[in-house]
Automatic annotation (TrEMBL), chains A, B:
<dbReference type="InterPro" id="IPR036388">
    <property type="entry name" value="WH-like_DNA-bd_sf"/>
</dbReference>
<feature type="domain" description="CoA-binding">
    <location>
        <begin position="89"/>
        <end position="190"/>
    </location>
</feature>
<keyword id="KW-0963">Cytoplasm</keyword>
<dbReference type="GO" id="GO:0003700">
    <property type="term" value="F:DNA-binding transcription factor activity"/>
</dbReference>
<keyword id="KW-0678">Repressor</keyword>
<dbReference type="InterPro" id="IPR022876">
    <property type="entry name" value="Tscrpt_rep_Rex"/>
</dbReference>
<dbReference type="InterPro" id="IPR003781">
    <property type="entry name" value="CoA-bd"/>
</dbReference>
<feature type="binding site">
    <location>
        <begin position="100"/>
        <end position="105"/>
    </location>
    <ligand>
        <name>NAD(+)</name>
    </ligand>
</feature>
<keyword id="KW-0238">DNA-binding</keyword>
<feature type="region of interest" description="Disordered">
    <location>
        <begin position="218"/>
        <end position="253"/>
    </location>
</feature>
<keyword id="KW-0520">NAD</keyword>
<comment type="similarity">
    <text>Belongs to the transcriptional regulatory Rex family.</text>
</comment>
<dbReference type="InterPro" id="IPR036390">
    <property type="entry name" value="WH_DNA-bd_sf"/>
</dbReference>
<dbReference type="InterPro" id="IPR009718">
    <property type="entry name" value="Rex_DNA-bd_C_dom"/>
</dbReference>
<feature type="DNA-binding region" description="H-T-H motif">
    <location>
        <begin position="26"/>
        <end position="65"/>
    </location>
</feature>
<dbReference type="GO" id="GO:0003677">
    <property type="term" value="F:DNA binding"/>
</dbReference>
<dbReference type="InterPro" id="IPR036291">
    <property type="entry name" value="NAD(P)-bd_dom_sf"/>
</dbReference>
Length: 253, 253
DNA sequence: GCTTGTGAAGCCCTTCACAGCG
DNA sequence: CGCTGTGAAGGGCTTCACAAGC
């Protein structure tokens, strides 16, 4: 999960748990696929499998939206597609601005998944004057100097930051000042934003590191003896106490 | 959060909660920055701020690793960097293969954050024969036909999937068959993998949809009571009950 | 009979608040 | 005295299991 939020922790948005909100797009995708195959109804079991969750969780998730199913039958696919879309706010158009048109920014601009569902890449912004005017994915890149105007003119409320880490906070500040209230941050930086602004973070290197942690664990399971179970509680009286491994002479990483 | 796991839910890896593991890279990044500025020690309060979490959480996280701090003083930066690196398995080299060298795959290949910390892009693989041999980020692209051999030869255990959704499951199967046990999936697909294989998912469009949900909610707060957009239709046959909003005549999305 | 919707139980994680220790 | 390390309390999410309803 490449995710991080900046949100009132205990606030359940309109009674819908955050964890449920995060799964709605998953359900929506599975339902859309069913809809395209003209499947009229689906059971919680089938839909759960398609979405990669278990059926009890799915039913509880849907129960927060309302009673949209029919007992003994299942859920009406089209109806659910609409209800979830509406709940997520996808029945309206969301103009999005991408700031930082490097490799990643260009990749996102070209990414079909953006346009597919309510989102529209309204502007591409970069600090390099040489890029100004160059079209990327058919959209001309504009210069950072005009950021304020671009955001206002297009009514952008969602910004995507794909700049180098050093520029991210400054870009973020300018986006917020211009009226952006939701930010998707790909730069490996902790952004600070005023109350009321949502930040979500996608961090590729963090994802890899989490995988490496588990990967290492798998490798260790084979060889080492049966030393699982109880972690060493308070051990050595003083001095450093960790599971194992002390400082090496040469620092890696 | 662009995150999805496929993991034994109740298994705390070596006693370290999954939530803690997910934050270790964050701490590591903040610590590395301090290290570069030659800061010798840091308090839980300072480090927590830099990492964007609260200090109680940070201290509890560190307590799972061992007692690495000094009361009244704080934590030794270099020492913590090493301990966290070791815990995450970053003291070893992880060869990574990227499959699907489109815009996103190329962006990842060029992404500096990969190489920076234990990870090395060992191979780029694509199904397009025309790309074979073309260097991307200085690494020649190889053809999917040789996937098996490429994985084995390079000892790759972590694979990154950046193919179109239709190809993702098949690529995944082949990666797993070749010995990959951790997968970072950028394709908007639910991958099914055998037990023992970890999958993490990064889904850009899901992130946007979650932002849209909150964004919509913010907008709704101002003009409360205003019509939310969906014209009531689909005369409730016998009591569909949702918060509000019934089926519209024309299906959006 | 079959599937939804949901109280209840349990688990995991966060937060609190302070004892413990340098 | 300051800051860490940690029991205990609290909250949210998941899972169970079954009553409700078509």
């Amino acid at each position: 999960m490449a995710t991080g939020r900046t949100h009132r922790p205990a606030t359940r948005s309109r009674g819908i748990p955050e964890a449920t909100v995060a799964r709605l797009p998953l359900y929506l995708r599975a339902l859309t696929a069913l809809s395209e195959r003209s499947v009229p109804t689906v059971s919680s079991e089938e839909l759960a499998t398609a979405a990669g969750v278990n059926s009890a969780k799915l039913r509880k998730d849907f129960s927060y939206l309302g009673s949209y199913g029919t007992r003994g039958v299942g859920y009406d696919v089209e109806y659910l597609v609409y209800q979830i879309s509406r709940e997520l706010g996808l029945t309206q158009d969301w103009p999005v601005a991408i700031v930082g048109i490097g490799n990643l920014g260009a990749a996102l601009a070209n990414y079909g998944g953006f346009a597919s569902r309510g989102f529209r890449v309204a502007a591409l912004i970069d600090a390099d004057p040489a890029m100004a005017g160059t079209p990327v994915a058919g959209i001309p890149v504009q210069h950072t100097d005009d950021l304020d105007r671009i955001i206002s003119d297009n009514g952008v409320s969602i910004g995507v930051i794909t700049t180098p880490p050093g520029a991210a906070q400054q870009v973020c500040d300018r986006l917020v000042a211009a009226g952006v209230t939701s930010i998707l941050n790909f730069a490996p930086t902790v952004l600070s934003v005023p109350e009321g602004v949502d930040v979500r973070k996608v961090d590729l290197s963090i994802e890899l590191q989490i995988l490496a942690f588990h990967e290492q664990r798998k490798a260790g399971e084979d060889a080492s003896g049966a030393d699982e179970g109880a972690p060493p509680m308070r051990a050595t009286p003083n001095g450093r106490k960790g599971p194992d491994g002390d400082m090496p002479a040469v620092m890696p990483a």
